[in-house]
Amino acid sequence: MLVAFASAWSSLALWYRLPLPEVGRQASAILFGLFGVWIIVALFGRRRFRAVLAFASAFVLVLVWWSAIKPPANGAWAPDVARQVTGEFDGDLLTLTNVRDFQWRSATDFTERWTTRSYDLNKLKSVDMFMSYWSGPTIAHVIMSFGFDDGRYLAWSIEVRRLSGGSFSPLADLFKNSPLVILAADERDVIGLRSNFRGEDVQIYHLRATPAAARLLLREYVSDANALAATPVFYNSLTTNCTTTIVKMMRVAGDTVPTDWRLVVNGYLPEYAYDRGALDTSIPLSQLRSVAHIAARAHDDGVSPNFSRAIRVGVPSPQDAL
Fold this sequence. Notes:
- This protein is of the alpha+beta class.
- It is 38% helix and 20% strand.
- It is built from ten helices and ten strands.
- The protein starts with a helix and ends in a 12-residue tail after the last helix.
- The model has no long low-confidence stretch (mean pLDDT 91).
């Protein structure tokens, strides 16, 4: 089983990342796969130890090559992921550079706008989790948003930094296909794009958060963004993706993060958060879910300056939320 898994992984790695034309990548992947099959057959013969040694040597060479592949710092990125947000603190005053505030007219037609904004962390009052379902009920994109008492909301989205004209591929992105980017954006942009123009099922859930925990969570986002700006990392569909925010979400609730299958099949994160007490447990989860869908409210609003308030109408807050 170990040889089969290592052979399959190595073949896919060669297919996606070997710097050769498509025919060369395909041939290399097939040859390594056949080599793995030969090794498995040899394990049942008298030369099993030589077979193990041969496979181990080949696999180590693949790992050495793999470790040398580093994410690019520059590229012809798609406009909506072209810039990495960074932030600076002056006491409790946060200043963010490259906050995205695009004006979308369709999923492909937009006016590009990047801004510099300041936020007083003493005025931070809420933390919300958005679930944007783009491929059925099992998989969703997770966005965290911070609300301030002046009515502004700051959304954070961890995404694939794809090239212009490129697309998202969960399988390819397991094999160092694209870098990671952390976006800070206006909700009318990053939420409205998904609800009003991409037709995704976007849901909102208010989280339990003390002021101190909410400020800590926001500081962690800024720290991660600054680190990513200094040292790029690859997006990974399983280990380095939008769901890595769940660890931060549970810190807001003052909880640990036990191993759970819903951290991988992230469409069920609302159930996970409810079970861990991160949502309002004074009412049934079914009631929270019924009012979480923002599509009707978002379309009625039309991505106006009142968008953030409109999509929250009727959404209950935890009793101890700010």
